Amino acid sequence: MAKIRTRTFFRKGVWEENPVFRQILGICSALAVTNLMTNTLIMGLGLIFVTAMSSATVSALRKITPERTRMMVQVLIIASYVMMVDIFLKAYLPDISEALGPYVGLIITNCIIMGRCEGFARNNPVWPAFLDGVASGVGYALVLLVIATVRELLGFGTLFGMHVMPSGWVPWTIMIMAPAGFFMLALFIWVAYELEYKKTQPSHGDK
């Protein structure tokens, strides 16, 4: 039963209720950091950590948090975990911290985290809230990594900084520019909905 429930959380977070291509949330950072896979991976892991821990904490405090001040409490909780991520990056991964710049701090304003805290964590026990936060963060990170794979491959000819394209490869400069993030996200959404549409259409044998 527990396994089925866990699978359900991840199915919804990764596909059925994916925060990026289903709910169009958190797309600012999705467009800003996806020109390099390493930065994207770190950003995704940071958001998974913040979403999961914030949801678990909000759930643990839900019975003693006053209704009228719950939003301020949630923002304070989220900000605390974002500061942990920021301090960790500055201490152990300073180059990536500098490359991500203000986008780490802006995790506080990411709609995905507040949405899961307000929409799920404050009405459910700690463990389901934690799983819901992890699943939503994984769904966000996977979409960003798919977009980053295409942008870095075509824009730099590399994957995680390692050259994989032939020596004569001419980089597509536009892929490392911000507009490419919009194009790739739109393409991803189109492909995802096409797959969903074909999946829901009855086959000829069913007629």
From TrEMBL:
Q: Its membrane topology, per UniProt?
A: Multi-pass membrane protein
Subcellular localization, as worded in the UniProt entry: Endomembrane system
InterPro entries according to UniProt: NqrDE/RnfAE
Q: GO CC annotations? A: endomembrane system; plasma membrane
Please provide the record's keywords in A-Z order: Membrane, Translocase, Transmembrane, Transmembrane helix, Transport, Ubiquinone
Pfam families with a match to the protein in the record: Rnf-Nqr (PF02508)
Residues annotated as transmembrane: 20-37, 43-61, 73-93, 99-117, 129-149, 169-193
- NCBIfam families for this protein: PRK12405.1
Instruction: List the PANTHER family hit by this protein, alphabetically.
Output: ELECTRON TRANSPORT COMPLEX PROTEIN RNFE, NA(+)-TRANSLOCATING NADH-QUINONE REDUCTASE SUBUNIT D
The name this protein goes by in its record: Na+-transporting NADH:ubiquinone oxidoreductase subunit D
